[in-house]
Amino acid sequence: MRGRTLSAGVALAVFAGMTVVLAAQPVAASPTTATTMARPIAATVAALAAPDISVTNVQAHLTQFNSIATNNGGNRRAGSAGYTASLAYVKSRLQSAGYTVSEQYCSSCRYPSNNLIAEWRGGPTDQVVMFGAHLDGVSAGPGINDNATGSATLLENALVLAAQNPTMTKKVRFAWWTDEEQGLNGSRFYVNSLNSTQRGYIKGYYNFDMVGSINGGYFINRVTSTTAAPLKAYWDSLGLQPEENVEGQGRSDDYYFQQAGIPTSGYAAGASARKTSAQAAKWGGTANAAYDPCYHRSCDTTANVSATVLNRAADGVAYALWQLAVSGGTPACTGGQVIGNGGFESGSTPWTASSGVITNSSSQPARTGSYKAWLGGNGSSSTESLSQSVTVPAGCASYTLSFWLHIDTAETTGSTAYDRLTVQVGSTTLATYSNLNAAAGYTQRSFNVAGFAGQTVTLKFTGTEDSSLQTSFVLDDVALQAS
């Protein structure tokens, strides 16, 4: 990633003609606890119908880039022998896999040298999804995290796409840029070489710059945009809670695409900025230390890469590519309200509930209608449950579980959670509420459940009370809306 910050880009154009999976923004579950459990990567990839990218293969490419630097003066700076050898390595692998590969000479670059462009067969030529990474590094070292990680991630994704050879709904174009470290010169030259019609063909550009930082985080360029949706949906399915790539704004090759009105996004794991305590608590790693302690230094070798972060980025690229450009990657959405009898007005079916939980008792009024689900309120040791098996449709743009909750308690100690309500989807605990959350009236609680798309799971509410002093957890108008 380039070290100097450019001015902020112009507003993004509407991302027309592109099918994406959009994960709804999560809403904080409660002031008490809200635990999201990451699903295993292999299971997630299978559920999302995208190939699992071998991190071992990606690391093998990194080893090649490191050796190239070692054998060529210790770096892969644009225009150097190390850069030329890096381009030759990527080009030969792509040509062997069947790509149409071209080199573009950047005459205006500080170190004149070539961009590498590769297209896969199939897909309409006027509907292009583009994935890019800069291939050059700084002169101080081999440039493995910055940015052999992005280059290797795209190379392995390209090779897997070729090996599987699926039916394409979009044209996929990969790019490896030169002279990024000197001012984003290679990508700027490419964008400037396109006429307005050619620019209009590119429906989205995705950039990958430093995706294996050893103390890294999970950052997405323009994380709330429609363009970012498939990248975010994958990381959401792992419970990673990605954040906006603030540090990287205007500092990598997506910049000139954005300036040209082409919708952009991408992954990053962080450069020289420091990880906050909140980020360390969420993602692990060391607080108040740089995401990449070897940023633009000679120690940026293969030892300076997190295999876990790299693996999640590589698999996320595959998921996005399949969702955006592969036939069958995005099933038709058969959304709407998934929960049956969410207002409890039609008896107990299809709910399974402890005796007396679904009730029209006037002691705790319903939010709407006459019936609601009332867990707890006994003032004695008890456990009550309410559950429903639901099939979450695949291929929808958003998935939001919501319900209205009123908590009433007789507990008087203000700092101890004596009685609890746990909310689960499958084996994942979405939130836990307690007597500490008691408040007048109903409050709506909402959760993003995109990670369960295509699965049949059980939604379950469990209320537990201790031996004295009641706490009532009253639920109404439960919904799981897919659209």
Automatic annotation (TrEMBL):
* Record-given protein name: Aminopeptidase S
The species this protein belongs to is Micromonospora taraxaci
Q: Which GO terms describe its molecular function?
A: aminopeptidase activity; metal ion binding; metalloexopeptidase activity
Q: Which family does it belong to?
A: Belongs to the peptidase M28 family. M28A subfamily.
Segments passing through the bilayer: none
GO process annotations (BP):
proteolysis
Keywords of this protein's UniProt record, alphabetized?
Aminopeptidase, Hydrolase, Metal-binding, Protease, Signal, Zinc
Chloroplast found in the keyword field: no
Domain (Peptidase M28) spans 115-320
